[in-house]
UniProtKB/TrEMBL annotation:
The organism of origin for this protein: Sinocyclocheilus grahami (Dianchi golden-line fish)
Protein origin, superkingdom: Eukaryota
Transmembrane segments: 44-68, 89-112, 132-155, 167-186, 206-227, 239-262, 282-302, 359-381, 387-406, 413-432
UniProt cross-references to PANTHER family, sorted A to Z: AMINO ACID TRANSPORTER, LARGE NEUTRAL AMINO ACIDS TRANSPORTER SMALL SUBUNIT 2
A cellular-component GO term for this protein: plasma membrane
One Pfam family of this chain: AA_permease_2
Localization in the cell: Cell membrane
Lipid bilayer topology: Multi-pass membrane protein
Transferase keyword on record: no
Protein name: Solute carrier family 7 member 8b
Keywords (A to Z) from UniProt: Amino-acid transport, Cell membrane, Disulfide bond, Membrane, Transmembrane, Transmembrane helix, Transport
Any one Gene Ontology molecular-function term assigned to this protein's record: neutral L-amino acid transmembrane transporter activity
InterPro entries named in the record: AA/rel_permease1, AminoAcid_Transporter
Amino acid sequence: TTKSKLTKVSIMKKVEIEKTMQCNIIGSGIFVSPKGVLENSSSVGLALIVWTLTGVITAISVLCYAELGVTIPKSGGDYSYVKDIFGRLAGFLRLWIAVLVIYPTNQAVIALTFANYALQPLFPSCFPPERALGLLAAVCLLLLTWIYCFSVHWVTRVQDVFTTGKLLALCFIIIMGIVQICKGHFYWLKPEHAFHPLQPYDMGRIALAFLQGSFAYAGWNFLNYVTEELIDPYRNLPRAIFISIPLATFVYVCANIAYVTAMSPQELMASNAVAVTFGEKLLGVMSWIMPISVALSNFGGVNGSLFTSSRLFFAGAREGHLPRLLAMIHVNRCTPIPALLFTVRSFFHSLKEYDIYTLINYVGFINYLFYGVTVAGQIVLNPNVSLAWPVIFLVFWTFLLIFSLYSEPVVCGIGLAIMLSGVPVYLFGVYWENKPKSFKSFVVKLNHLGQKLFMVVYPSEGSERWK
């Protein structure tokens, strides 16, 4: 293969990667988070404010991460930033919690949402059985893992196809919402009704509403995980996320306005598949479009999460924070098979918890914990730049973590305990370099066994074709 052909293929792959990650910024969480946001906000009006403010805070986070992304142009996102700014232990803890909690839980939520919407038409008068939800979610992840193991090109094609389902569903919801408003169905949007509390306001629950809303925006930092694989990241990274976040905020607020033009708050909170209930009320015999579109959207969401997690594992293994095997790719297909299989194993552990909203609180708290650490790192890294945006974010971050911990001490406490459990693992696996020769020999043999089993090599060990 000539060098010019390799360069052309590399550029094509970079374009596909950039498109794939941008598709995930408007996330599938918009089809699951509205119920959790409204329940914890206690009124329609405050729920819409939460959605808007979450978009604003996300935009501020984007400003901070965009600067970090061009200052530290490494793949791995906030793991790379925290490691470079605060040291290897802090970076390892970010990686540890991402490997054990964030990505498996995120994939479990999206896969369960996919299963819920796919099965809802079969159980119109009740919730689908938990066993059926878990089985279909597992099938979804296993199928996408097999596709990714087979071809990166297929991953990008799957993302393009299933993003259509996401956009189709959102377009239907927003258009029907506009039609409803034109017909005069905006009772719950009038100020005297919008801010009527369904239950007493509580600061702890409002903090949880922000965690629920932030799940829908969760794709905002995905491009930071593949910075090295972007074309001209100094220009394209800020441009991609600056365009996407205002668009996502506009779409999310419009979708939630549309929901309450067709449903009362009580109906919305009673529904386990909000978009399905919305479709049943407004689309009549065509209501089947909604669950299919949303299911396709979440199928693509799992696909995008797999794509990102494998890049993070590669970055961690490259730094010596994860087993070397997890950074290896297939000799012919160039796909990260060991990292993908490790992700699947962690996913099944998270799947034991079927309550989607508990899972969102769980992963949201840990995510925001490290978002704050990362943004604080921007101040440490560039103390002479404007501190307005980082300070605003950290003030909000402090409010969110304190009241979330107060409202859900067990869920948040478990996340903190898992994070701290990474300290002894770091001391043994990374800090202790002079391990016995017998242990090092065992690790080498284990890596060799994994290489033979999966037919993988470390990218730098091959020729230019692995780049």
